[in-house]
Design goal:
The structure holds two protein chains of two kinds.
Chain A: E1 2-3, E2 14-19, H1 28-43, E3 49-53, E4 60-65, E5 81-85, E6 96-99, E7 104-105, E8 128-130, E9 133-135, E10 149-151, H2 156-159, E11 162-164, E12 186-188, E13 191-193, E14 207-209, H3 214-217, E15 220-222, E16 244-246, E17 249-251, E18 265-267, H4 272-275, E19 278-280, E20 286-287, H5 288-300, E21 302-303, H6 326-336, E22 397-401, E23 404-409, E24 412-417, E25 425-429, H7 430-433, E26 443-446, E27 453-457, E28 460-465, E29 468-474, E30 489-492, E31 497-502, E32 505-510, E33 515-516, E34 522-523, H8 524-527, E35 537-541, E36 544-549, E37 552-556, E38 562-567, H9 568-572
Parallel strand pairs in A: 2-3, 2-4, 4-6, 7-20
Antiparallel strand pairs in A: 1-21, 5-6, 8-9, 10-11, 12-13, 14-15, 16-17, 18-19, 22-23, 23-24, 24-25, 26-27, 27-28, 28-29, 30-31, 31-32, 32-33, 32-34, 35-36, 36-37, 37-38
Helix pairs in contact in A: 1-5
Chain B: H1 22-32, E1 38-41, E2 44-47, H2 50-60, H3 71-77, E3 81-82
Antiparallel strand pairs in B: 1-2
Classes of the chains: A alpha+beta, B alpha+beta.
Amino acid sequence: YQTFEGDLKWDHHDITYRILNYSPDMGSSLTDDAFARAFKVWSDVTPLTFTRLFDGTADIMISFGKANHGDPYPFDGKDGLLAHAYPPGEGIQGDAHFDDDEYWTLGKGPVVTTSYGNANGALCHFPFTFEGKSYTTCTTDGREDNLPWCATTADYTRDKKYGFCPSELLNTFGGNADGAPCVFPFVFLGNKYDSCTTEGRNDGYRWCATTDNYDRDTKYGFCPSRDTAVIGGNSEGEPCHFPFVFLGKTYDSCTSEGRGDGKLWCGTTASYDDDQKWGFCPDSGYSLFLVAAHEFGHALGLDHSNIRDALMYPMYSYVEDFSLHRDDIEGIQYLYGSKTGPDPTPPQPDTPTTDSYPDPDETEATDEPEPTEPTTTATPHPVDPTKDPCKFTKFDTITVIEGELHFFKDGNYWKTSSRSDAGPKGPFAVSEKWPALPAVIDSAFEDLLTRKLYFFSGTRFWVYTGKSVLGPRSIEKLGLPSSIQKVEGALQRGKGKVLLFSGENFWRLDVKAQSIDKGYPRYTDVVFGGVPSDAHDVFQYKGHSYFCRDRFYWRMNSQRQVDRVGYVKYDLLKC
Amino acid sequence: WSLPLKSVFVTFPGDIIKNMTDMEVAESYLDKYGYTKKEFRSGFQSMVSTSKALKMMQRQMGLEETGELDKPTLDAMKRPRCGVPDVAN
């Protein structure tokens, strides 16, 4: 790693940041989340904290801009240079700028958040089918108001779940009109406009009036990019026009002809030869999270590393499962020291946990006898001492047993206590404590009434009462349909009721009756808006519902609001 | 047998990136990212030679240090990256 000459660094640890504007490519909530996660990359390994300001001057001012954007280092159009940031200090120092001629995504193509409709803001599901036709982008088919929409499940005809895609006909961002939609036509400097325009601006951003006369009302907003819009060129925001004619030849899809750099482009009118209107075709885009995490490294005082896998390596490459490289950690800790608080502890022998069940509400009398035999206290098992749970991207399942979080993976499990910040204990062998179980556990829960432990693997489940076990039995015995391949999560709902999650659905199990309640399945995203619809671990912990996808968790409070998104590794596993 | 396509390159209006030769790309890259910064010695200043600058860049990027504008080096220069110079000035 490298630091800037003179080891430039902040003289305080409570760093502030402010997001000055947004890209038309991504919704503001996705952008906010990407930046927050990028800061967390650094706050997880240092004593630094990051607080967002909404006005005034922050240490790190974040903005999107194109080409000449107000500093001496202009951007260069699509690709090439993606972003830059300044080392810590006053004024422009510490600021981070992102080239808005790039296509900003989460690194894997368009991420289209929906609004209105009936999908509670879920992401578009591409491809989706509608009346027998497959769609890979938002469409206006089936509508007379020209509003683009998408299905949020694979099959609209079957599921009827949909939302509207970003469109200037639905809302704008920034400006002074509080997100009001464009009004077409509108008058600007005496001319009429039927679509968003860059006229009157020198920063290349498309805007519109939100009343019919800008000259009179001066109300305006910026136009969000549609997922079908071209990037850059001279037709930003317009869709490709297929077919289009280029040098006398007709093209029905994007082409790299005419360019030496191999980039795909299209005409945005019927004839490029006549109109010279064009733009680049949407691609995977660049991960705003990854680029921001890199730039914030600069803003904190790190220069470029020459280690290819380090975050601070100067070139962009997309990684699915990001984790901070040791080189980056050493660099930032050289400047700011390591995170305060207890260090992760190595696996230690387990101790009996007879006093580790604090919630009095959960210890009320039950209508079934408690197991008479104490559960076996597991001892650390030398199954594979090199297995470090802190290096796992995801676990087979996470659940709370006897007040402790249990993390299951490939026949082993680890535990963390809710009462201390000590790191994970383990690995323990599943086969020692629950010998009837297979290696892979998809889901598990402890019935709050009876303290029985339910384990699910594939289409089978087991019930442990102390050392006694029932099962395996088919999950169909519980009333779950034969079509589901596995149960991926469980949330206790009061006493005797448990929600079981699989795919995009959940069912409510009456534990005592051992049957599924009427009215189920229901769609997860309808009831639990804002959490990933493909969560692979769902569990209840300290009054919150947790939905995990890969290394992240979404925490939902009792009002069903997502109040925190964080890393399983740091916040739950306490690595 | 089909005839090979004759590609015709055009200048697209609004396209910021201009058609440049490989050497122009390299010189621009080395300059922009600090590899050809001026050296100050005994009161004189001189530019770092292109070969030396290329070697510095190749070392930074983990490429074979040939000092030549070979294909891996040129490919690396065309990859998307951060705009902060690699060599401080």
